Structure formats: C-alpha cells, structure tokens
C-alpha cells in the first residue's frame, strides 16, 4: 500500500461530507499518518474552549475509525516541525501562486480583515505532507489544488537544493469527492455552513438525520434518476446512498425510479442512519476513556516525530541553515 498523509481541521463538527470525501478513504497502514490539523483551525476566528473540545472529538473520531492501530494518528501542534518547515516554505512560495488558490479566493480575497494565515495556509499544508515522505494524499475534490501546490513546492525545492522531498499525488475517489449541501445542491456540504439542515453531522442521532434528509432540497419533477446537471439534489442523495450501502447508483435509481421522492428519501435516510450509528457509538465510547485517547495520541506523536525531525534536519542542511 502507498504511504499516505491526510489531515482534517478540528473546526466545528465533522460532517458526512468529510467522511465520504476523505475519512473513509484513509487506510490503516504502518507507513501512513493522519493528523488533526489544529493549527490550520487558527486561520479563521476561533473560541479557545470550543477548539480544545473539537481537537479532542476529532481525534476520537480518527481513533474510532481504527486509524490509531494500523497507522498513526496525531495532533499537528504536538509536532513543532510542521510550523518550522512552514516558515521555510513561506519564504519559497510565491504571492502569485497562493493568490490563485480558489479556497482563498472564495473565503478571503478582497477582504482586509481576514488573517494572513488564511492566505499562507496551503504552505502549512504542504509542510504537513512533505515531512512524511508519502506518495499519496487522500482528500476530497476541494483540496486537489492545495496538493498540486505541494507537488510544485516539492519539485521546486528539489531542483534548487537537491532531492530532499518525495513528490506526493492527490488521491481522490471517483464517487463522493464532493458531497453537496442538503439545502443547496450546487454548494458543497461544509462544516462551517451556519444552517444545521444543510449538513449531516457524524454526531447526529437518528431523528436528526431522518429530518434533514426528508427536508433536503430535491429537484422539480418526481422521477428518481442520476443526472448531476439536471437533478443535482437527487443525484447527491443517490451518491451518498450508494457509497454508504455499497449498492450501485444505477441499481438504487432503478429501484426508486417511480416511487416518488418521499419513499426514496426514506430509503436514503435508513442507509445513512445505519452507517452513522455505529461510528457515533464508537466515538461516544472512546470519549469516555480519555486515558486511552491520550495514550494513542502520544504514540502517534512519537511516531510522527521520528519521521519529521530527521526530515527537517535534512531540509536545514540542504538550504544552508545548518
Ligand atoms: P476540512 O473539513 O476542510 O478539514 O476537510 C477535511 C477533508 O474532508 C478534506 O479532505 C476535504 O476535501 C474533505 N471534505 C470536506 N467537505 C467535503 C465534501 N462536502 N465532500 C467531499 N469531501 C469533503
Ligand atoms: N487543508 C485541509 C482542509 O481544509 C486540511 C489539511 C491540512 C490537509 N493539512 C493537510 C489535508 C495535509 C491533507 C493533507 O481540508
């Protein structure tokens, strides 16, 4: 299996979009690292008490997925090499290329009161990845451009200072790379959307999940068919159901074709509830055992340090700091 690195921000609560687009593609493998990127969460305004709690619950989720056993789970700020390499990459990245990042364009461009960190955050992300010599970065579609910037940085560094970094590639699933909002199927489902009905949280109970899916915005007409352009709402629900049930989109569309949106949504809700429940229960169980969380995170930190320290040393020697 290829060595992988990926990260998730402990900003707000984890959504079904995070799970389908990213987490479910994170494989436990002894060479892979999965990170709660808490320093990324500082790029937008935050509340200390909330952040502290979200770091904990996000870590518990990664551990509940079993990623702390076969691979390594750690918290970004526990390994200071990330911030140190980020400064070096800040001095090698260019204003022009960062200005082209679509995420910055949509969240910050033209505003004077956004943080400088929001602008440079792709270079912190590049540091996360490059410290671990990984080949693959499993992410959702929205992070593809940031992984490509990471490749560019690695190639530029290697050609100027010698072959230090492994050049990584994004790994993006064909289906579910962009789960859409339940309120507006033309926008992605996002943790930071203030409308709670736009997103399913992995901490949601059965009633909340059913209600959100039953009130999801669907399209005109009443035929259940997969057509992301003409029927984005129905197609989004079909993708979600297909991924979580393992049944093909075609088979699901066929079964519900003439049954109307009501019956279709009840079917989708059942599938989502069945997929989320065991995860939620595992996370809740683990949160009751803080010592176990700490133990696994410390193991992850130590393993991460064993990779990150020598890598940063190599970088410093290559650029002339040592
Ligand atoms: P974030 O919530 O920005 O920390 O994202 C963590 C991971 O989830 C990244 O790999 C994202 O690409 C992925 N992700 C976030 N939202 C979605 C979505 N709506 N559909 C698919 N993947 C997503
Ligand atoms: N920027 C990513 C996001 O918002 C999170 C992230 C930070 C990440 N560092 C990473 C993802 C390294 C993959 C690899 O979703």
Description:
- With 322 residues, the protein is mainly alpha-helical.
- It has two domains: 198 residues, HUPs (Rossmann fold), CATH 3.40.50.620; 88 residues, Tyrosyl-Transfer RNA Synthetase.
- The chain is built from 13 helices and five strands.
- The strands form two sheets. Strands 1-2-3 form a three-stranded parallel β-sheet. A two-stranded parallel ribbon has the order 4-5.
- Helix 7 packs across helix 8 and helix 9 runs antiparallel to helix 12.
- The structure holds adenosine monophosphate (AMP) and tryptophan (TRP).
- The site of adenosine monophosphate (AMP) has 17 residues, from helix 1.
- Annotated CATH homologous superfamily of the largest domain: HUPs
**Percent range of helical residues:** 40-55%
User: Based on CA inertia axes, which overall geometry fits?
Assistant: globular
Which kinds of small molecule does this entry bind, naming each only once?
adenosine monophosphate, tryptophan
Mean pLDDT: 96
Number of domains: 2
Helix and strand pattern? EHEHHEHHHHEHEHHHHH
- End-to-end separation in angstroms reads 35 Å
Shape-level CATH architecture of the largest domain = 3-Layer(aba) Sandwich
CATH class of the largest domain: Alpha Beta
**DSSP strand content:** 5-15%
Helices and strands, with pairings:
Elements lengths: L4 E4 L7 H6 L11 E4 L11 H17 L2 H4 L1 E4 L5 H10 L4 H5 L2 H6 L8 H15 L5 E3 L5 H18 L7 E3 L34 H9 L17 H14 L3 H8 L3 H28 L2 H30 L3
Parallel strand pairs: 1-2, 2-3, 4-5
Bound molecules: adenosine monophosphate and tryptophan (TRP).
Tell me briefly what this model is:
The protein is mainly alpha-helical. 53% of the residues lie in helices and 6% in strands. The radius of gyration is 20 Å and the shape is globular.
């Amino acid at each position: 299996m290829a060595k992988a690195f990926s990260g998730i921000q402990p900003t707000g609560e984890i959504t079904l979009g995070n799970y389908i687009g990213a987490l479910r593609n994170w494989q436990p493998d002894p060479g892979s690292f999965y990170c709660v990127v808490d320093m990324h969460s500082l790029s937008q305004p935050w509340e200390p008490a909330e952040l502290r709690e979200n770091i904990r619950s996000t870590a518990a989720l990664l551990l509940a997925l079993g990623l702390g056993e076969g691979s390594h789970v750690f918290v970004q700020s526990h390994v200071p090499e990330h911030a140190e390499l980020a400064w070096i990459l800040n001095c090698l990245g260019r204003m022009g290329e960062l200005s082209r990042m679509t995420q910055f364009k949509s969240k910050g461009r033209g505003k004077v009161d956004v943080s400088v960190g929001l602008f440079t955050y792709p270079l912190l992300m590049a540091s996360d990845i490059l410290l671990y010599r990984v080949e693959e970065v499993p992410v959702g579609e929205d992070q593809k451009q940031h992984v490509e910037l990471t490749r560019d940085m690695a190639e530029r560094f290697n050609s100027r200072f010698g072959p230090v970094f492994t050049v990584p590639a994004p790994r993006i699933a064909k289906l579910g790379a962009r789960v859409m909002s339940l309120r507006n199927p033309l926008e992605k489902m996002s943790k930071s959307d203030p409308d709670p009905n736009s997103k399913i949280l992995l901490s949601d109970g059965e009633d909340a999940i059913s209600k959100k899916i039953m009130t999801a915005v669907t399209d005109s007409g009443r035929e259940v068919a997969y057509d992301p352009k003409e029927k984005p709402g129905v197609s989004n629900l079909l993708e979600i159901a297909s991924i979580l049930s393992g049944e093909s989109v075609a088979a699901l569309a066929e079964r519900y074709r003439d049954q109307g949106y009501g019956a279709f949504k009840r079917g989708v809700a059942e599938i989502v509830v069945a997929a989320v429940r065991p995860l939620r229960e595992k996370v809740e169980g683990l949160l009751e055992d803080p010592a176990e969380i700490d133990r696994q995170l410390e193991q992850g930190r130590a393993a991460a340090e064993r990779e990150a320290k020598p890598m940063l040393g190599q970088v410093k020697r290559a650029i002339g700091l040592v």
